[in-house]
Each structure stands twice: as structure tokens, then as C-alpha cells.
């Protein structure tokens, strides 16, 4: 039957530098990771760094578009040691009690004949979001983990400091049929 199935869910009871999902079964077609994300870092927005199967080699390639109310920019990055931007969070200086909404698809994650494709993004409310529309930040990122190994572990690290208490991630499976 087609649809989503929850593989695992984690909500932090206290701050932590990263969250991992391990022992991911290879029985699905795609994975879908969503998050409600806030950092303890004293900034409006904090980065994220996703690694697969503990691979911190130069095996991640991506393109990203960043937008705010005041403009847009883009970047292409190759040979990275992680996959950034998709799980970026609200920082500790942002609106109190606000969390970023994030998502990441990992396509054909169990295949051993192709790279794992990834596409996702984050929407972040920053310091004066209810006063000035220019402080919303959004990004869309897509790329590949350049390995033909099946994905069995995903780690989402905070780019700065720790993920805050109540940050939550849910990993879903997705089957087409």
C-alpha cells in the first residue's frame, strides 16, 4: 500500500548537539525527514549539518537558494563533508517559542546502484518576525550523497551550539506502491 509510515520520532527533553536515526531498514523506497527546530545558539538563524552513515568525507554536493524579505541568493557546493541547510533552525535570539519548519526527502536511499538524492528546505522565523516581514528566512536545497551505499543512519547536527529542548524530528518511510 502506498503512503507514509513513521519509522522513528525524537523530541529532545534537553539540549543536544545532534540527533541520529540508526538501523534504518532498507525495505522502503524513499525516506522523508521533518523537523521542528530551534537552537541554543545566540543568533536568529542557525545552520545544520546532515551526515549519512557517519560519512564525513568530501561526498556531498548541493545547490541552495536562500530567500528573505530583503532578497535572494544562491550557492552551489561540491566536495562537502556534510549536507547543510535542509534542517536549519531558529536561533536563540529569534522570537521566543518559535521553531523552524524543516523537511528533507532522501530518494532511493536503499539503492546500491545510484547516489542518494536529497531535496528539502527550512522556513525560519527570526527576531522581529511579527513586526518586519524581512526577517523570515527560507531556503531550498537539493543535491546528492555521492555514495552507492544504502543509507542506514542519518545524523542531524546543529551547525552552532546545540539543538534546544523540544526540537523534534520525525523520520518517515515512503513507498510508491
Describe the structure.
With 177 residues, this protein is mainly β. 0% of the residues lie in helices and 53% in strands. It has no helices and 14 strands. It has strands spanning 3-11, 18-22, 30-37, 45-46, 48-52, 60-68, 71-80, 83-84, 89-90, 100-107, 116-125, 136-145, 153-158, 168-175. Strands 1-14-3-10-11-12-6-7 form an 8-stranded antiparallel beta sheet, with no helix packed on it. Strands 2-13-5-8 form a 4-stranded antiparallel beta sheet, with no helix packed on it. β6 (60-68) and β7 (71-80) form a beta hairpin. The radius of gyration is 16 Å and the shape is globular. The termini are close together. 34% of the residues are buried.
What are the salient characteristics of this protein?
four-stranded antiparallel sheet, mainly beta, globular, eight-stranded antiparallel sheet, 177 residues
Low-confidence stretches: none
Bulk shape: globular
Largest sheet: 8 strands, antiparallel
The neighbouring-strand order within the major sheet is 1-14-3-10-11-12-6-7
The overall pLDDT average reads 90
Question: Which structural class matches the secondary elements?
Answer: mainly beta
Number of strands: 14
Give the % helix: under 10%
Amino acid at each position: 500500500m502506498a503512503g507514509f509510515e513513521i519509522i522513528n520520532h525524537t523530541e529532545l527533553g534537553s539540549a543536544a548537539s545532534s540527533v541520529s536515526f540508526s538501523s534504518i531498514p532498507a525495505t522502503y523506497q524513499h525516506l522523508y525527514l521533518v523537523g521542528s527546530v530551534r537552537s541554543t545558539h545566540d543568533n536568529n538563524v542557525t545552520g545544520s549539518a546532515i551526515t549519512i552513515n557517519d560519512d564525513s568525507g568530501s561526498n556531498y554536493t548541493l545547490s541552495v537558494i536562500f530567500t528573505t524579505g530583503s532578497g535572494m541568493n544562491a550557492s552551489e557546493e561540491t566536495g562537502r563533508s556534510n549536507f547543510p541547510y535542509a534542517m536549519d533552525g531558529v536561533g536563540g535570539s529569534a522570537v521566543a517559542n518559535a521553531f523552524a519548519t524543516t523537511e528533507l526527502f532522501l530518494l532511493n536511499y536503499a539503492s546500491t546502484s545510484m547516489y542518494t538524492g536529497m531535496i528539502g528546505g527550512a522556513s525560519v522565523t527570526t527576531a522581529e518576525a511579527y513586526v518586519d516581514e524581512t526577517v523570515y528566512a527560507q531556503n531550498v536545497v537539493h543535491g546528492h550523497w555521492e555514495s552507492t551505499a544504502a543509507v542506514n543512519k542519518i545524523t542531524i547536527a546543529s551547525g552552532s551550539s546545540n539543538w534546544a529542548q523540544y526540537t523534534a524530528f520525525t523520520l518517515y518511510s515512503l513507498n510508491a506502491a
